[in-house]
Design goal:
The protein has 418 residues and is α+β, with helices and mostly antiparallel strands. Helices cover 35% and strands 19% of the residues. It contains 14 helices and 14 strands. Helix 3 packs parallel to helix 5, helix 4 packs antiparallel against helix 5 and helix 5 runs antiparallel to helix 6. One of its GO terms (biological process) is temperature compensation of the circadian clock.
Length: 418
């Protein structure tokens, strides 16, 4: 069932009062508007005041004004109050859509507030999302011909094993022919600290995700559609972020799932949900995963939980990250190649600041004239199987390719030394 049908049946449940309560915003609106005015946002304040009184065109105008401020320069230079201004406008817009029975539009506005807005109204956005999502699901359930979507059979993204010899032809040259990343089962925290964390050595950890609900749920397209199909998510379209045709889009999760299902691995329009904090945005999915105990090694703190979800053939080009990283493979398989931080100069990082953690070397199409020594560099690699976790030490360069439809979670954490 399409998400647009949610709006057609907007008042199907009958028990809803048609109001999204926003007690925090109601109490803090004057203070927030004062701060926005102090940053020159007088026109915004005027539109936001009209929006609060029920003017949907004013709500749209306020959202556009805040959007322009968010895109007036580098993200880190945006004055924080304008992020809160964007969230406020999204809440006003969502309340008006919700009151009109336009549930999908209300949820989209709230999602945009979560994705692009500030932290001040985050709890308010999440509470509103919870109520709107409950109503959306009840409408979908009530209108389903078979008595509810929960009765639908599973549609599995990955249902069969891959032939390694067949997929190897798509991998970078020399793949799976050098040193393999070691795999360990029942790895104790003490052994992880001693043998990998302190020494900076990658490892694949087996049998540490069996208790995750995601292990049994995320391979089912119908489950993901039921839980999050009407939510809006940011996706990447194109081979990878270093390619000129690469772009970003905002689409519903249902549309994204359909693109994965129908994806051609050779398409330049491959769609990938990459390095997105999906679990901050969609809390139902957050409940399906557990932060590994290994991530508390070193006495540091969790920096981010990111989702990586896409069809076979999606590639994250060779790059490095500043934090300790555990990449947990929930659905499908990935090929991962790793180079130690000591080889950074030989991997030719981009000179631009924004891309300085990415290599100029395209492992899928190596220019041996420009980079003649690349094939002589030592690396480790592996096929990361479903249910396995890969520990990637800070600054280690890594290239990742999905061999099947793949849903992974990366956990970044910093050590106390940082």
């Amino acid at each position: 069932m399409s998400t647009s049908a949610i709006d057609v049946a907007g008042e199907a449940t009958g028990s809803d009062d048609g109001i999204l309560e926003t007690p925090f915003l109601d109490a803090e609106r004057s203070n927030l508007l004062q701060l926005i005015a102090e940053e020159g946002g007088y026109a915004y304040v005027s539109m936001a005041t009209l929006a609060a009184a029920g003017d949907i065109r004013a709500a749209e105008a306020a959202k556009e004004m805040a959007w322009e401020q968010l895109h007036s320069g580098p993200w880190h230079s945006v004055v924080p109050i304008w992020r809160d201004a964007y969230s406020m406008a999204c809440v006003h817009l969502a309340k008006l859509h919700y009151a009109s029975g336009e549930i999908a539009q209300a949820i989209r506005a709230l999602d945009m507030g979560l994705i692009m807005g500030g932290m001040t109204l985050r709890d308010e956005l999440n509470l509103a999302i919870k109520k709107a999502s409950k109503k959306a699901r009840s409408v979908l359930f009530a209108s389903s011909e078979n008595g509810g979507e929960k009765g639908e059979s599973e549609i599995k993204f990955v249902s069969q094993q891959i032939n390694v010899a067949e997929v190897q032809q798509f991998l970078p040259i020399k793949s799976l022919s050098c040193k393999m990343v070691g795999k360990r089962s029942a790895l104790s925290l003490e052994a992880f600290l001693r043998d990998h964390y302190l020494s900076g050595i990658p490892v694949v950890i087996r049998d540490s995700m069996d208790h995750w609900p995601a292990k049994n749920k995320w391979n089912d397209m119908n489950y993901l559609r039921r839980v999050a199909g009407f939510r809006t998510v940011p996706v990447e379209v194109g081979k990878n972020y270093l390619c000129p045709e690469w772009k970003q889009e905002l689409i519903t999760f249902s549309e994204f799932l359909e693109r994965i299902w129908s994806s051609d691995a050779t398409s330049v329009e491959t769609t990938y949900l990459a390095q997105h904090q999906l679990f901050d945005q969609i809390q139902e999915l957050r409940q399906d995963i557990v932060i590994p105990d290994y991530c508390f090694t070193g006495g540091g703190e969790i920096r981010s939980l990111n989702a990586w979800f896409g069809p076979a053939g999606t590639v994250t080009p060779l790059h490095h990250d500043p934090h300790h990283n555990i990449l947990a493979q929930v659905v499908g398989k990935k090929y991962v190649r790793l180079y130690p931080a000591s080889l950074s100069d030989e991997l030719h990082p981009h000179s631009e600041t924004m891309l300085s953690n990415s290599s100029q070397v395209d492992l899928d199409n190596i220019d041996e004239k420009e980079f003649p020594k690349i094939l002589d560099l030592e690396f480790q690699d592996c096929i990361l199987e479903e249910g396995e976790m890969l520990y990637i030490p800070p600054k280690w360069w890594h290239y990742v390719r999905s061999l099947t439809t793949s849903f992974s979670v990366s956990f970044w954490w910093s050590g106390a030394e940082n």
